[in-house]
Amino acid sequence: MKVLVLILSVALYWPLVGQIVFEELDAVSGLYLWSINESRKGSQSAISSDALFGKTVTSTTWIERSVDASDMDELMYSPDGDLYTKNNNTILHSLDNGEIFASIDIPNGIFIFELADLYVLDDDVLFISDNAFGHCYYSINNGQSWVWCGLLLLSLDPEIKLVDNFIYVADPSQEGAKIIARINVNTSQMEIIDMTSLTDPWTIIFSKITEDGTIFMYGRDNSGPQYVDHLLHYKFGQNVESLGLFPIPIDARSCYAVGSALYTFGFYTAHVYNGFEFQPLSYIGLPLEGEKRFILSDNAHLYVIVDHTRIFRSVRSLAFAGVISGKVDLDEDQGCIPDVTETGLAFWNVTVEGANFFRAGISGPNGEFRYMVPEGEYTVRAQTPGPGWELCEDDINIIVDADQLTATVDFLSQATGHCANLSLDFSTPLLRRCFENYYTIRVRNTGPQASTGTTLILHLDPFFNFHSASIPFHQIDATTVSFNLEALELNANQIFRIFFTLSCQAELGMEHCLSGNITGDNLCADDHTFTTECQVNIGSFDPNDKRSFNENGRESAQVDKGEYISYHIRFQNTGTDTAFTVRIIDPLSPYLDLNTLEMLSSSHPYTYEITDGPMLVADFRNIHLPDSTTNEPASHGFLKFRVKPLPSFDYGTTIANKAGIFFDFNDAILTNETITVILPGVGIHDQPKLIDFTVFPNPAKHVLELNIAETHRNLIDTWIIFDRYGRIATQALYLPDRALNITSLAPGAYTLLLVSNRKVMGAKTFVKGESP
Q1: In angstroms, rounded to a whole number, what is the distance separating the alpha carbons of residues 168 and 170?
Q2: Which of 330, 351, 413, 430 is most buried, by CB atoms within 10 Å?
Q3: pLDDT tens-digit profile of 28-45?
Q4: pTM beyond 0.85, yes or no
């Protein structure tokens, strides 16, 4: 048996293309077109009331087959392109797309075969559900022998899927078994879970199984004064989780799982749930009128039969057809020879790049990674997380095509030093006076050795009244707390919180800093064992925003070349109910060097991926973020990451960035746009080799006059003033011959930038003096 596992996905991130484009195919003869399908190898078959027809995708003419099709059922393809169907008496199998069929004997336990459903799960893997008596059978050798999987009392058309070596079964029907089951095809062992007790208080209406074994269910909660509908998901060994209210489209007629996505198809529009939201898709090229039957082919092209006579096919597949997966392993034998017993390496950057395709992420807890890809040629790269490592191969080239839709790429890395590579980061969503606040602390060891004698010292702001932490601590004095982390093993990722009250004596808007230093007996040389972050305390604020920090840990709109920009995205659930999922989609500036991107601390666990665009997509699943009216302090969250500008961009370059935040199935909340300028140093500097201009008076009290050459005035569209910390103090459109109003600025030193189409054209320093 060859079990081919396909992980399909959809590249449907923000912004969404929003269309399914159709082309009409030549019609087949006959009064009534019943079914149609297309294989992953490009073969097509169709059944009409009169005959079976076949052709290839590149051909325009349907060829009538000689077989009797009067009682044929649905058409199905296996991954290797074999065609299957059944009639009232037997299973029919063809190696040549229907020109010649051979019969496959049915199980002895089925007495009325015309009432049975046939599923082709993989090459040679067949499943039969007997609707008359509720029996089911499966075969892993193309029907040469059958295994009875029990009296499950399955209803008509249960959901069946092969995942790895397990057959998954989901049958929520009121007339059926109301169970979730999986059968190990190697051992025949079966797990059966009662769906009613598993999903209480939800009544399940339908279920769909994705290629990774996730079971999505549409559940109706009747426990309240009025029912509410939720989308649920479940994996064996885990609890059922609600993903939030499920607004199923009113005109939905068909629902399919395509890789990790759910599609609903209606007469006039389709919708896709891509993991965090339902998004509408319009039809292009599909007639508005007529009865429609939607059929998803085996290679995820969408077919629509209109009025049982006309055939429409989506121009593109709704899913990527291939998967690239593998591991990053420690080469303990130092021979660059793979060994299945070797230790996986977590937190390594792994990228997959092809023509018009890019994905990036980090290896998982066991070193594993997986990317869904279209057919094509790819370069897969791994990047060491710090010093002390050397890869046997930095990049590997592979091809994914119809003959080989899955590719395994493994990386081996050898230790070059006897040290531990530790990194420290922390942050908080906000600081408020007179209230309890917290910081999330993250300490990570990417090896190659375990750390010994590991100690973290935190230096608190004088206005922080520290009182507790989520792990043991020792308070040295009012502003110093230590944590004995002892030995941190390779791949360790310790996350905890500290809690404190911000003194009421602090003035509103005052800046507060937390710094930390992690030490040990055997640390590698690294730049991330000491960290500082400074934030101002706030009163009311926009709860969903984005800020940038410089390498000194201060909120700033300036960085020097070669320095990191740290982005800090804050979110708050200001709705009226718990948010089950939060997704952040951040279209990253093309001026940023993705090879330097590093994900830092966060308020809650999340996963992320870099997609085409490029876009950072961070998913907070099962976050259960309470709404602000129920629990205001717990309704906040944050995500922090850092990245450097590309070295090719010189002084004066401005980098703009904003993000979209999605709560459950709601529309995106857009953050403010951050503007970061590359300038020499982070402070007060005149900009060299740009347009010449002067400012006066200097010091200035109320207005600042500009003297710019006539030839340069029309080049300027915006002016921006930065304070001494590199933060934007004020900005406005530039109007020639009009002075700049600086009355609102506090006394002190500032930098003025003149900007043209987001390019800095000139800079000057000035001083705002005391007003009389």
Answers
A1: 7
A2: 413
A3: 877 789 899 999 889 999
A4: no
